[in-house]
Specification:
659 residues; 8-stranded mixed sheet; 21 helices; 22% strand; membrane; transmembrane helix; Nucleotide_cyclase
Length: 659
């Protein structure tokens, strides 16, 4: 963990850390509410339904690609027909001949995706062909924009509604067949609804113009075939659409605006088509057209009837009508039910529960587990939405719950990362209060080990001890003695660190500090001597003053020596200890023990005395306990505070008197 990262966490407000980061439940709930807020904000700022529309092309590709629609046949005015007959539009006599050929083939319904604009000398023959016993549906086009307003031809096929019902689209202009042409009673509009990407995914089922209601071409074809009287009913249950259009045996679901969604479940290859040229030349299969519903439309390049759909970027408009009719006959027109909003909330709640469960099972691997669970959730949501669309024909959408899942996983991961970092920072801070900070940093970044991990270096060791502390503690409350130790260790640690040293151990009433050990330090001998003098000067006045013949006074003894030491951790992996080993440690400890006998509070060894710059005087050679050779001992002269000397002398006098 770097100093920069620790600084970042130290800048986190303490109230926020205590109230949120240290409370996993609160943190996770806050992340989920934030994800919900971001999702609602995204819905408000952008139209997420358009993303559902764009992704639906993937859903349609998952349908049965081997399906074939045999009840509806497209008579295609294709490139082959243009080359054989001539450029489109053909003379109306030729178009009348095409309709007559369809009657001869035995079709049961003719739906013409053709606008007959203007008059022609052949209108009489075309009128005769349109008036045949086979039901025929004409096309007409409405303008949904107020500008420009065009009124061309004579509208036909108004539905028997007393007034324009609620779920209708308002039209401002229209283009219909010429009023001189005798048209059949059935007509349907071919007005598309174009999405922002240019594709056609919905059509207005009903359009209102001049107080009358007109159906789409596909609906008009179903009315012509069934001779049913259309009725409108509103949805009741959560799985119902906002509106039902009842056509006798057929029920078409409409949304609140009266739009009919196009089902592209039937593959383009499954729509049967016959070239108009083959029909005119008598080459069309007779059994293919017998009893079929026929859609007549132009797909040739010059016909200007190419529109983008989820199945292709240049699809003839007649295919859209064929898809509508096919879905209508199979009762698989997709619709958005009244309870669609609950679907998003339900999926979002399930995703949140799955993410929380994953976080509960693997709290330390949130950064890896949560993205994987979120991705699996999003794929499952998309798959379930696709399954309901293809099997139950419910248009529910998946982007909003998927977006919530992504936001929730991201925020939960970030929250868990911040919480774990905060916990690690707190643990590191506690660890650094029990071990030297450089050692704590190494422990926090290394795996547990059962081997010796130590560093050999040349360092200066200081050993300080409160003399007579055990006698002082006798008969005193532990709180009082604890405060004495607390004050001593706090002051001594501050002084040692201020002079570049590191407090390696605090055991009992003694302290062991090292310069140039765990942390590098230049001129470690001189800096250790300065620290020893300040330690004596500051800590001695803080010691409690005792004037009693039964309790010797508290005093501070300090020993210093420079030499080779080994600093590191030892012991089994389950229980390690940090220690400083070496002859310099032994010498410093023994010198500290001699301070009381030699009446000098600061004693130093020969090696560190070289850095004293004349501040020491030689006391002589002494055989220190535990060593085999005598060592030259030096002292640093210090002055006792006046009151301290008087109390000491008084205590000595009492001891002599009592003796």
């Amino acid at each position: 963990m770097t100093d920069h990262s620790r600084g970042v966490f130290r800048r986190i407000p303490s109230a926020f850390t205590a109230g949120l980061l240290q409370k996993p439940v609160r943190l996770r709930l806050a992340a989920l509410f934030a994800a919900m807020a971001l999702t609602l904000l995204a819905i408000g700022l952008s139209d997420l339904s358009q993303w559902d529309e764009l992704s639906a092309s993937l859903s349609w590709r998952m349908a049965d690609q081997q399906a074939v629609e045999r009840r509806i046949v497209v008579v295609d005015i294709d490139e082959k027909s243009i080359q054989a007959i001539g450029a489109w539009p053909w003379p109306r006599a030729r178009q009348a001949e095409l309709l007559e050929k369809l009657d001869q083939a035995g079709v049961s319904l003719k739906i013409l995706d053709i606008l007959f604009e203007g008059s022609s000398p052949d209108d009489a023959r075309l009128s005769s062909a349109l008036a045949s016993p086979v039901p025929t549906v004409m096309a007409q086009l409405f303008s949904l924009s107020p500008e420009p307003v065009v009124h061309s031809g004579q509208l036909a096929g108004a539905l028997p509604f007393p007034d324009c019902p609620r779920p209708t689209e308002r039209a401002y202009g229209y283009m219909a067949s010429d009023d001189q042409l005798r048209t059949p009673p059935f007509a349907g509009h071919i007005t598309p609804l174009v999405d922002p990407d240019g594709a056609v995914r919905q059509v207005p089922a009903l359009i209102c113009h001049g107080g009358k209601t007109y159906a789409s071409l596909a609906i008009a074809g179903a009315i012509a075939a069934s001779q049913a009287v259309p009725e409108l009913h509103s949805g009741v249950s959560l799985l119902d659409p906002p509106w039902w259009l009842d056509l006798g045996g057929l029920r078409l679901p409409l949304d609140d605006a009266g739009h009919l969604r196009v089902s592209y479940q039937m593959p383009r290859s499954g729509l049967l088509a016959v070239s108009a040229a083959d029909l005119l030349q008598g080459k069309a299969p007779a059994d293919l057209l017998q009893g079929a519903w026929v859609l007549v439309g132009a797909t040739a390049f010059g016909a200007r009837d190419a529109i983008p759909t989820p199945q292709g970027r240049a699809v003839s408009g007649v295919e859209v009508h064929a898809q509508l009719l096919s879905a209508m006959l199979d009762d698989r027109t997709p619709y958005r039910p009244l309870g669609a909003a609950l679907w998003s909330w339900l999926l979002g709640g399930l995703s949140a529960l799955l993410l929380l469960a994953a976080l509960r099972l693997a709290p330390r691997s949130a950064a890896i587990v949560l993205p994987m669970v979120a991705l699996a959730n999003i794929l499952a949501i998309f798959g379930l939405s696709t399954l309901l669309l293809l099997k139950q024909h419910l248009w529910l959408g998946w982007v909003a719950p998927g977006l919530f899942t992504g936001f929730a996983a991201t925020l939960l991961s970030a929250g868990e990362f911040a919480r774990l970092r905060c916990e690690r920072e707190r643990l590191y801070s506690h660890l650094a209060s029990y071990l030297p900070e450089p050692v704590a940093r190494q422990v926090a970044t290394q795996e547990p080990c059962a081997q010796v991990r130590a560093t050999r270096c040349e360092a200066t060791v200081l050993h300080a001890d409160l003399r007579n502390f055990s006698a002082y503690c006798a008969g005193r409350p532990p709180e009082e003695t604890a405060m004495v130790l607390h004050l001593f260790f706090t002051t001594a640690s501050r002084i040692v660190e201020a002079h570049g040293g590191v407090v390696e151990q605090m055991v009992g009433d003694s302290l062991l500090a090292v310069w140039n050990g765990s942390a590098p330090c230049t001129d470690h001998g001189a800096r250790a001597l300065d620290a020893a003098e300040e330690l004596w000067r500051v800590c001695t006045p803080q010691l409690p003053r005792i004037a009693s013949r039964h309790v010797p006074p508290l005093d501070l003894g300090i020993g210093l020596e420079t030499g080779t030491v080994l600093i590191g951790s030892f012991g089994p992996a389950a229980r390690r200890t940090h220690a400083v080993l070496g002859e310099a440690v032994t010498v410093a400890t023994r010198l500290q023990a001699l301070t009381g006998e030699l009446a000098h509070p600061i004693l130093i060894g020969a090696t560190v005395a070289r850095a004293a710059s004349g501040r020491t005087h030689r006391l002589g050679d002494f055989l220190l306990a535990g060593l085999t050779e005598p060592r030259t001992v030096y002292a640093i002269p210090v002055k006792y505070p006046a009151g301290h000397l008087r109390l000491v002398f008084d205590a000595e006098a009492e001891q002599q008197t009592s003796g």
